[in-house]
From TrEMBL:
PROSITE patterns: JMJC. GO terms for molecular function: histone H3K4me/H3K4me2/H3K4me3 demethylase activity. GO terms for cellular component: chromatin; nucleus. It comes from the Eukaryota. InterPro entries: JmjC_dom. This is JmjC domain-containing protein.
C-alpha cells in the first residue's frame, strides 16, 4: 500500500532510517512495516510490560469491528498464563521473565 493512501485518509505517516546500533520503539496503537533493499540481517524483539494488557481489549474490539480476527488471542494468553500459575509451571517471582517470553 502506498503511504499516500494513508496520508489521503488523514492518518499521520512518518518514515525513518534505522542506522547500525539504533533501536526503534513502536508505541501502543501504532502500526509499523518495513522493507529491505538488498542483502541485510535483521532482528525484531517484541516485548511488553504488564501495562500492555490494558490496550489489548481496546485493540480486539477495533479489530472485531473491522471483521479482523486477532492475530493473538489475548484472552487465550491470559487463560494459559493462569493455568501455568495453577500448575506450578513457574512461580510469581519468575512472572516478568516468562511474561516477556510469551508475548
Amino acid at each position: 500500500m502506498s503511504p499516500e493512501v494513508i496520508l489521503n485518509a488523514g492518518i499521520p505517516c512518518y518514515r525513518l532510517v534505522q542506522n547500525p546500533g539504533e533501536f526503534i520503539v513502536t508505541f501502543p496503537r501504532a502500526y509499523h512495516s518495513g522493507f529491505s533493499h538488498g542483502f541485510n540481517c535483521s532482528e525484531a524483539s517484541n516485548i511488553a510490560t504488564p501495562e500492555w494488557l490494558l490496550f489489548t481489549g481496546e485493540a480486539e474490539i477495533r479489530r472485531a469491528a473491522e471483521n479482523n480476527p486477532p492475530s493473538v488471542s489475548h484472552i487465550q494468553l491470559l487463560y494459559d498464563l493462569a493455568l501455568s500459575f495453577s500448575s506450578g509451571w513457574f512461580t510469581l517471582h519468575e512472572f516478568p521473565r516468562v511474561f516477556n517470553c510469551m508475548i
